[in-house]
Amino acid sequence: MIAATLCCALFATLRQTLDIMTKSAKAANTQHSAGPIWQRPATLDAIHANHHGTICEHLGIEFTEVGDDYLVARMPADARTRQPMGIVHGGASVTLAETLGSVGANLCLPPDRAAVGLDINANHIRSVRDGWVTGRAHAVHLGRTTQVWQIEMRDDDGKLTCTSRLTMAVISRPS
Length: 175
Prior knowledge:
By secondary structure, this protein is α+β, with helices and mostly antiparallel strands. The protein folds into 2 domains: 1-30; 35-172, Thiol Ester Dehydrase, Chain A. It has helices at 2-30, 44-49, 55-59, 90-107; strands spanning 62-66, 70-76, 113-124, 132-142, 146-154, 160-172. The protein has a 6-stranded antiparallel β-sheet. A hairpin with a 3-residue loop joins strand 4 (132-142) and strand 5 (146-154). The longest helix is centred in the first third of the chain and has 29 residues, at 2-30. It starts with a helix and ends with a strand. Residues 3-14 and 17-33 have low confidence and may be disordered.
């Protein structure tokens, strides 16, 4: 009897905690929807101009869309991005994720600040052999000293292939 009462009390507490967390997550997902989050020119031309001679150019990463609070880029599944088994290399997917999150993070900062990678993780859900891997990045947290970005990558059929979370450190821009 006591165990059943304790279980009910624990369940009620967990349910309240889950409700609070759900409300917080919903608020966080909508906190930036009032308008653009960008503090620097956020155009495809400006982004592409900044990536000549970089890994983005080498891997064929192309930015395709800039929204008020998200970025979209794609990467080909070809000889540059495949591993020996003929599927997109996990490191290539992580490169796409870090590129999207890094660009987004830096666009959210004033010119005297910069964002640099602090931590990234990725879960590879489904392999891709051909076509394009398209990533979409949005901010989860835009703080004074850190930012967190969520990046989802999908194949040409819209199926989730990889999900990644990138934490950026915000620093003074080096002179």
